[in-house]
């Protein structure tokens, strides 16, 4: 089975939730305030609002120079503004806004050297950044928000998370799904509550179950739902326990920190066997426990940490102590209801005369959603 990182980055379709569209609209509003003269802003935004109301989860805004034979005033206004912040040779201009900053920062595309504003490139990796591309015809293309997947550790890299998994496509028990969505909703709404009770605004999940039952898919669904970035912490690439904490510097608020296959990394270290020597894992169980406890008190707000394992019974009980994991989620073999979701996702079937027979078979045999998806 591929690793979480491989699976999460393997997709090319961008899926966006309602949250994403709402955030995008908000960002468009912000951008419009800064790009357009005041008298044009209202008209432009009401047009966008109309579009979003009817629109799918993806949106590109293209401002053409001419609207038929008529000159497009929005294009002229945007062009005038852009000329003041870019050099004549600029082909691409990126615009980003940090959560707590009021103004957008504008950054010239990858192949150009000049950058504007005080933000460095990392700020592009914020949730909900917008990309404005100026084509040779002078069109301005505003691309949709994207969730970022970053790999922490010595080979750290970031990519846009284009994993299409959502809670709708996830084949898990409907009751568990609802419980989890409610839990996430409660978590993001409870800033004041966490402050009042003096608790860090963090949440820990343990996902356990056999390979191919959807642990990585669930993490992607959570990220797409909350519009949080994902940081995938590869323990095997860390040199020491101290590296765990140092990696946090690269993470941001409103993010999910993922540590996968936790039993392998820790077990290997404790057993000190040949496999351990091969994997070069340098993180110890106590180092990890210290890190989790410290994480809860030392880093920013709105953080979710997710551990995954195929073997919960191998984990040290200290790891599962109350307060470390808020929710333990058992990902299990496919149920009849899960099967219905998968056939609706893949061949697009809602009904079939074989369904009853398959329902019976599925309850008799352990089969993973991944195996069914493969078929
Ligand atoms: N519960 C599920 N709902 C929908 N699709 C699933 C589910 N489980 C598995 N799949 C399909 O199988 C593929 C592999 O599953 P995934 O990587 O999420 O499982 P995993 O439990 O993380 O496996 P591993 O423990 O090996 O990392 C997914 O990309 C998806 O296509």
From TrEMBL:
CDD domains: RecA-like_BCS1
Gene3D superfamilies recorded: 6.10.280.40, P-loop containing nucleotide triphosphate hydrolases
Coiled-coil ranges per UniProt: none
Cofactors that this protein relies on: Mg(2+)
Pfam families, per database record: AAA, AAA_assoc, AAA_lid_At3g28540
A GO molecular-function descriptor: ATP binding
Protein's UniProt keywords contain Protein biosynthesis: no
Listed PROSITE patterns: AAA (PS00674)
SUPFAM superfamilies: P-loop containing nucleoside triphosphate hydrolases
Alphabetical keyword list: ATP-binding, Hydrolase, Magnesium, Nucleotide-binding
Domain of life: Eukaryota
Domain AAA+ ATPase: 201-335
Catalytic activity: ATP + H2O = ADP + phosphate + H(+)
A biological-process GO annotation: response to stress
Family to which the UniProt record says this protein belongs: Belongs to the AAA ATPase family. BCS1 subfamily.
Protein name: AAA+ ATPase domain-containing protein
Species the sequence originates in: Anisodus tanguticus
High-level lineage: Eukaryota, Viridiplantae, Streptophyta, Embryophyta, Tracheophyta
